[in-house]
Automatic annotation (TrEMBL):
The organism of origin for this protein: Bimuria novae-zelandiae CBS 107.79
Domain of life according to the entry: Eukaryota
Organism phylogeny: Eukaryota, Fungi, Dikarya, Ascomycota, Pezizomycotina
Protein name: DUF952-domain-containing protein
Listed Pfam families: DUF952
Alphabetized InterPro entries for the sequence: DUF952
Length: 129
């Protein structure tokens, strides 16, 4: 599937707890990402629905904000292009989501890590496209 047009400036990885600080070259994969063989990512418009569906019991989450161009170029780890690292847009149930294959997230491709808090629902969350 093709990327949204125009493509997002950022993609987000939802974490249930704070990532290490400072970020390492490579963050450990979640069990879900290990099992599926790619890193699950969301656009700013998808994060609220994903958080509401999969993280509804949490009152705070951490988000990794990643420049889309960085991942689209295959940048992995400490700013190095990794052969085979790529974003694929794939249809999953309720939409088309970005999946990062053959790469890792870490200080070389995560622009920012920040905490978000749940209001009455995660669907109220607004993020930068």
């Amino acid at each position: 599937m093709a990327a949204p047009s125009p493509p997002p400036n950022y993609l987000y990885k939802i974490l249930p707890s704070a990532p290490p600080s400072p970020l390492p070259d490579r963050l450990p994969l979640s069990d879900l990402d290990k099992n599926d063989g790619y890193i699950h990512l969301s656009t700013s418009q998808q994060v609220p629905g994903t958080a509401d569906k999969w993280f509804n019991d949490f009152t705070e989450l951490w988000l990794l904000k990643i420049k889309y161009e960085t991942l689209a170029s295959g940048t992995d780890g400490p700013g190095q292009a990794k052969e085979g690292a790529q974003i694929k847009w794939e249809e999953v149930g309720r939409g088309v989501f970005a999946h990062f294959y053959n790469g890792d997230l870490g200080k070389g491709n995560v622009a920012e890590a920040f905490k978000v808090e749940k209001g009455s629902s995660w669907t109220e969350l607004k993020l930068e496209w």
